[in-house]
Write a structure and sequence with these properties.
This protein is α+β, with helices and mostly antiparallel strands. The protein has one domain (9-185): Roll (FAS1 domain), CATH 2.30.180. It has seven helices and seven strands. The protein has helices at residues 54-58, 62-66, 73-82, 85-90, 101-105, 109-117, 119-128, and strands spanning 94-99, 130-131, 142-146, 152-158, 161-164, 168-176, 180-185. β6 and β7 form a beta hairpin. α3 packs across α7.
């Protein structure tokens, strides 16, 4: 399945309440009734309209929305290789902590290649980045959440500055897609 070209425009009118993965700035009134406004320094780089914009992403399920964000191409490739596209796109009210390409680049190339070649390990890591419920900014100050992998993620912070597991910084949070909330992070999280 090539999610880069998959668009569900017919469902756009029904998808007005959802998540992420491009980082941009919309006027707060554009998000009225759709939950929290995206926050964080990385949000300024999101296109204001068109492909990859917050509005575009809100119309798509999470894996498809992520495919329109060039900063998430490594994550999208990993999700495709692990066979998780349909799982993520069909889930309801989930939260994804989405590592950027720069986050994956922090992993030594030989180690990353090894993980990408091992579907079981990759699936474990990717599902550790997803929570089976909505987690928005209001939940991040002092949170603990069970992941789809079965482990636990912790969050802490205030204002627009939040960390996940004391290692990853949320660079753009509360990005809505049609079925998920996305928090874009700068470090890949590793399950225990």
């Amino acid at each position: 399945m090539n999610i880069s070209h998959t668009r569900h425009r017919a469902a756009a009118a029904f998808a007005a309440a959802a998540l992420p993965l491009s980082l941009g700035v919309l006027a707060p009134q554009a998000w009225a009734g759709q939950g929290d406004v995206p926050f964080g320094p990385g949000c300024a780089s999101v296109p204001k309209e068109g492909a990859g914009s917050f509005t575009d992403m809100a119309e798509e399920p999470v894996a498809t929305a992520a495919s329109s964000n060039p900063a998430l191409s490594t994550l999208v490739a990993a999700v495709e290789r692990a066979g998780l596209v349909d799982t993520l796109n069909n889930a309801k009210d989930i939260t994804v902590f989405a590592p950027t390409n720069d986050a994956f680049a922090k992993i030594p190339e030989a180690d990353l290649d090894k993980v990408l070649a091992d579907k079981d390990t990759m699936t474990k890591i990717l599902t550790y980045h997803a929570v089976g419920r909505t987690v928005d900014k209001a939940d991040l100050a002092d949170g603990s959440f069970e992941t789809l992998e079965g482990g636990t993620l912790t969050t802490g912070g205030s204002g627009d500055a939040y960390k996940v597991n004391d290692t990853a910084t949320i660079v753009c949070g509360d990005v809505a897609t049609s079925n998920a909330t996305v928090h874009i992070i700068d470090t890949v999280l590793m399950p225990k």
